[in-house]
Write a structure and sequence with these properties.
The structure is a single chain. The chain is mainly α and about 200 residues long. The protein has a single domain, classed as de novo design (two linked rop proteins) (Up-down Bundle), CATH 1.20.1440.80. The protein is built from 8 helices and 3 strands. It is elongated, with a radius of gyration of 22 Å. The mean pLDDT is about 80. It is a multi-pass membrane protein.
């Protein structure tokens, strides 16, 4: 791919054709990623090291932590961010290869429908991620986790584990749910903006 295509692709990703899309890019790229990358590491970075059970043995701690965290929140949210970016990236790659200007996206029906479809895919992916987050992490992190260690062939089957910084993790969970909701609202608003521009209520950029 030539440098011109790469430049058009990067400009399309960083500067979508709608005002709300540009705000979504700023919110998604700056606020959400900064929150996850900086604060997420501070909250979850040493969780496995401080996760302790009774009896406090490495074997038991590792087994119960894997049971408590089938997937770490940082990995889940990082995957969510990458997957949600895919529909928009495909569209802007297509636009770059076809040399489609950003202003043409809102003026030609086919391009507008294609772009709206990519936004709808983002909404669906965010909704699926929201549901998966509920299934994996819930809405609250409890201070005590009850672990089933029967598979270790111990004399006891149930043990209690202490979850470090559970209150901070609860706040972080709520924040990530909030970010997902905000992103979905922005995507819906972007579709509304495109529809209004197509109907002539707003002037195209």
């Amino acid at each position: 791919m030539s440098p011109n295509y790469m430049r058009s692709f990067s400009e399309g990703c960083l500067r979508p054709p709608t005002v709300i899309g540009q705000f979504h890019t700023l919110f998604f790229g700056s606020v959400r990623m900064f929150f996850l990358g900086v604060l997420g590491f501070a909250v979850y970075g040493n969780e496995a090291l401080h996760f302790s059970c009774d009896p406090d043995k490495r074997e038991v701690n590792l087994f119960c932590y894997n049971q408590f965290r089938p997937i770490t929140p940082q990995v889940f949210w990082a995957l969510q961010l990458v997957i949600v970016l895919v529909p928009g990236a495909f569209f802007h790659l297509y636009a770059a290869c076809k040399s489609i200007k950003q202003e043409d996206i809102l003026q030609k029906s086919f391009y507008s429908v294609f772009y709206i479809f990519s936004v709808l895919l983002r909404i669906i992916l965010e909704a699926v991620a929201f549901w998966l987050q509920i299934q994996l992490f819930g809405f609250k992190v409890n201070a005590i986790y009850i672990c089933d260690v029967g598979a270790l062939e111990k004399k006891f089957n149930i043990t209690r584990c202490m979850v470090p910084e559970h209150f901070e993790k609860t706040i972080f969970l709520i924040a990530m749910y909030t970010f997902t909701v905000i992103t979905v609202v922005l995507c819906i608003a972007e579709i509304f903006e495109i529809s209004c521009r197509r109907l002539g209520f707003f002037k195209n950029q």
